[in-house]
Amino acid sequence: MPVNDPSQASAKFMSFFPSLSASVLVSAVMFLPLASAFSSGEIPVGEFTSLTGGSASFGQSSHKGTALAVEEINAAGGVLGKKIRLITEDDQSQAGQPATIVRKLISQDHVVAILGEVASSKTLEAAPICQQNQIPMITPASTNPKVTEVGDHVFRICFIDPFQGTVISKFARARGWNRIAILTDAKQDYSVGLTECFTRDFVARGGEIVREQKYSSGDKDFKAQLTSIKAAQPDAIFVPGYYGEVSLIAKQARLLGIKVPLLGGDGWVGDSLLKVAGKSLDGCFFSAHFSASDKSERVQNFVAKYQAKYGVPPDDMSALGYDSAMILADAIRRAGTTEAAPLRDAIAATKDFSGVTGLITLDEKRNASKPAVILTIENGGFHFVETVTP
Ligand code: PHE
């Protein structure tokens, strides 16, 4: 029960003291600190994400998914008889913001757990603060291995990049591509990590990395790097970046006459990818967490509810955001409390949770072991190619 809602406070008082007169009630309700003695009616949960800025698509989607889950949980009566109150903060896609926000969520809002972020570098900034304060944190989508190594209060419900790197590398080898060039975003832990994971596996499978080039998040001109890559005559180019830069890279590659496919990871998923890239990404491939074309009832229900609420289909971050909130609610229910230590243990014990992104079991390193999907791009749309299991 929110203490600032007099009508609910009044109703609660009524049920405790049915014989009190209305005037006594009014004065009691006005004395709100007294009302708060009866009101631990909500569970505050923090969420930090990039609602604006360079990776706004990540934050918008993950927030929509998380909010839909919280709405469903609350409509079904909440958890432990209480509603979840989601406190969402925008980190504006800017370094420095996650730390400030997470400190505020913990010290001022007294959240019981924190959901976020999508981008690994942002999650890595906030994770040590959650760990020091012993507040459980669940990232829906950060795949860099270092994230959960921060400590035993940091969890993720997505696969990790050593797996994702292998999935892409195996796929490239199966296509018969021997010579790969790589264009890495040096500013993102995600991109640097995925480059390492892919390279290790690709070389172990007999492939060759024929050129390595770098850029920084926010760059707009990639012609110098692409010219160097073109000269190396690769069979395909691996671009483990985020959708904003990837769409420009694809366009500029085609303008320079580069015809080989581009290959990427989950960071490609973003609303402007195809709007900006147009047909430049046709015939390219990337790995992802979720396919909205999955025919299972669970996924189709989620797609229908999401589409009805927001007027757009869910993407990977929507689905992962949704699952992260559902897993937290499930853990609170199993713990029977929101106390940090038992809640941490209950999250760690998550087993065979049936999410919209698949069956989720957390391992001893607090990572999820789950299949990835490979998607291809044709005619302005994503198309399912295959599912790869760990
Ligand atoms: N895996 C990316 C990272 O760790 C984030 C991401 C997840 C992007 C899912 C898109 C979809 O930074």
Summary, kept brief:
This protein is α/β, with parallel strands linked by helices and 390 residues long. It is built from 15 helices and 14 strands. It has two domains: 197 residues, Response regulator (Rossmann fold), CATH 3.40.50; 128 residues, Response regulator (Rossmann fold).
List the helices and strands and how they pair.
Layout: H1 6-16, H2 22-30, H3 32-36, E1 42-49, H4 56-75, E2 83-90, H5 97-107, E3 113-115, H6 120-133, E4 137-139, H7 146-149, E5 154-156, H8 161-174, E6 179-185, H9 189-204, E7 208-215, H10 223-231, E8 236-238, H11 243-255, E9 262-264, H12 273-277, E10 285-288, H13 297-310, H14 316-335, H15 340-348, E11 353-355, E12 358-360, E13 372-378, E14 381-388
Parallel strand pairs: 1-2, 1-3, 3-4, 4-5, 6-7, 6-8, 8-9, 9-10
Antiparallel strand pairs: 10-13, 11-12, 13-14
The protein binds phenylalanine (PHE).
Short descriptors:
alpha/beta; binds phenylalanine; globular; 2 domains; disordered N terminus; 7-stranded mixed beta sheet; 390 residues; Rossmann fold
Describe this structure as you would to a colleague.
The chain is an alpha/beta fold and 390 residues long. Helix content is 45%, strand content 18%. A hairpin with a 2-residue loop joins strand 13 and strand 14. Helix 1 crosses helix 2, helix 8 crosses helix 9 and helix 14 packs across helix 15. The longest helix is centred in the first third of the chain and has 20 residues. The N terminus is likely disordered. The structure holds phenylalanine (PHE). The site of phenylalanine (PHE) has 15 residues, from helix 14.
